[in-house]
Amino acid sequence: MLKNDLLIRAAKGLEVERAPVWLMRQAGRILPEYKATRARAKNFIDFVKTPELACEVSIQPVDILGVDAAIIFSDILVIPEAMGLPYQMIEAKGPWFENTIKSKADVDKLKIADAGDLDYVIKALQLTKKELNNRVPLIGFAGAPWTLFAYMIEGSGSKTFSKAKQFLYTQPETAHLLLEKITQSTINYLKGQVAAGADILQLFDSWAGVLSPDMYYEFSLNYISKICDALSPLVPVTVFAKDAHYATEKISQTSCSSIGLDWTINPQSARSQAGNKTLQGNADPCLLYASEEKIIRETNQMLKAFGKNKYICNLGHGLYPDLDKEKVKFFVDLVKNYKWNS
Amino acid sequence: MLKNDLLIRAAKGLEVERAPVWLMRQAGRILPEYKATRARAKNFIDFVKTPELACEVSIQPVDILGVDAAIIFSDILVIPEAMGLPYQMIEAKGPWFENTIKSKADVDKLKIADAGDLDYVIKALQLTKKELNNRVPLIGFAGAPWTLFAYMIEGSGSKTFSKAKQFLYTQPETAHLLLEKITQSTINYLKGQVAAGADILQLFDSWAGVLSPDMYYEFSLNYISKICDALSPLVPVTVFAKDAHYATEKISQTSCSSIGLDWTINPQSARSQAGNKTLQGNADPCLLYASEEKIIRETNQMLKAFGKNKYICNLGHGLYPDLDKEKVKFFVDLVKNYKWNS
After folding, report:
1. What is the DSSP string of B24-93?
2. What is the DSSP letter of A21?
3. Cis omega (within 30 of 0) on the bond before B337?
4. Residues B240, B10: Cα–Cα separation, whole Å
5. Residue B250 φ then ψ, to 5°
6. Is A40 a catalytic residue?
7. Domain A6-337 top-level CATH class
């Protein structure tokens, strides 16, 4: 049914003619078209909650950059909000929660969200799926439970997330209760995304890197694994645990289909640890500041290192807002035109 | 001459009765005594520039926590300032540079600093060395060239240091010129520190983790290696490259004596990559929020994993200011009383 199903085939480990390419934060501020749509909402939360606007910016990069997939425009923090912990997005600062979780009583007050609590995302997916008209796959996503937990305890971004980690060290049972509630909410939410048309899912564990390996396995990967088990019978699931350099092998033991890598990871070394999983990544976003000559050299080297099959080309993190759209398109074209047999 | 030379012997790979222990940011806000001294300076820069105050806070943790070394209280950004790029330390925000480096002309204007430009640190070292009366070794330090470069381009802290990285990608020759000037200044400065009494040195590469491995080797480790070559004939040098998980083996090929590790690194795996170098680290600072029981369990596990020789016990990063001083002392005592033969 999909006219371009490269991403799905690559995620499933099937043979492809060329590696698919999409970019984290492709629906974002590098596109003037995004900024124009964004300006029609009164604030970021309102933007996220308006399905027509979310649909518009989700499709823009397919039209403008020629990427092999659309990712639904949304925010990972819609889950805490649906569980009863609202937040604001403060310009140039990031997310901010008026209330944070401090005790078991706070956790008990939270509800387990279902897809109905997030109908605006579901509607945005349905609309985007329809508008895409099967040109490319539609990626759904959620934050990984640990990353959502980190914001719900800390109340905002942090260099160290020391409050969230302190909670793990001092209230481990309550931490597990909260992580379980987030996990159940996320499973409900992602099942709703699949029903609404998501062809593949990605879990973003943005703050994986602040945990030690043992803490990561106990408080993050266990829950990611549950989500993969619930969703992978339906669609492929990619796990992107930023900065969890030690975890590739353990992630490959979950039922995910693909593993996202940041730019500090050596492709060959990841391949040797990832079993039969597909790998996704991992150019440094800052490479796209460089000259075309340098972009060509480093991209070719990366593509060669990963190989054509079981590979999804992407960056190792989201696009930075001040990157030049033309350079980004240059990168996408480069990947699409790479001669795999040379 | 040193009454307690455990740190020096461990750094040199000599036999020890027990592993030495000290803590990054031990001269810092976890101690009420530090806050009292700090209150006598009109601001952070003034504090750093007053040898009597710097001496006082450098010695406090030796008296209060019983650590096996003093580290001179100073700041890594004294080098950019001595080169002609002054900064302010803004409360709750961090460092801020009014002028930043944008071009070769800006680099040309900078001077290569010598120890005389940093006489206030030299005096602080002399005073501290004298006051310590050889009870424990005195650690000198500097920021690694890449980390200083990152601040000089970016002008402040940053989650991504994308401006500094953009500079590497777009002006690599000028970047190397600046890194070379920083390196020469740092060598002059550290030689001055040794002459003033530093028994061992540490290079802090706080922002190593934002670079890809190839960029790290080219723009950071090359310069660290030069500094090690210039200083290691005089005193042992420890290299701490935070988040550069991939670099342990390459760091071990420099002339450093020891390698600092953050808490995401597995001790056994680091040992297998570090050749005959001493390892330093790597407890998660957040462990010190936990119960004594948990601190005992995890610390014992870490000490066993590293082994008694060629090991310096420390955290994987600096102490967080809100940690309880009693818990920190509990950790230090635990390490000092560990039964290595059990």
Report:
1. TT-SSTTSHHHHHHHTTSSSHHHHHT-HHHHHHHHHHHHHHT--S-EE----TTHHHHHHT--EEEETTT
2. B
3. no
4. 16
5. -65, -35
6. no
7. alpha beta
Q: Active site residue: B18, B25, B117, B311, which one?
A: B25
Which of B93, B219, B286 to substitute to test the interface with A, most A CBs within 10 Å?
A: B286
pLDDT on residue B282: 98
Task: Please report the pLDDT score of residue A91 as a whole number.
Answer: 86
Of A151, A216, A223, A311, which is the active-site residue? A151
ipTM of the complex: 0.95
Contacts of A291 in chain B (CB under 8 A): 170
Half-sphere exposure of B298 (CA within 13 A, CB side): 22
The encoded tokens of residue A245 equal 């350099």
Confidence of residue B341 (pLDDT cuts 50, 70, 90): confident
A25 catalytic residue (yes or no): yes
User: Catalytic: B38?
Assistant: yes
User: How does pLDDT run across A319-333, given as a tens digit for each residue?
Assistant: 999 999 999 999 999
What pLDDT shows up at residue B91? 86
Instruction: Write down the domain spans for chain B.
Output: 6-337
Distance, in angstroms, between A173 CA and closest chain B CA?
13
Tens of pLDDT, residues B35-61:
999 999 999 999 999 999 999 999 999
Is residue B264 within 8 Å of B318, Cβ to Cβ? no
| B68-94 average pLDDT score | 96
- State whether the Cα torsion A89-A92-A282-A338 is positive or negative: positive
* CA angle, residues A60, A64, A65, in degrees to nearest 5: 110
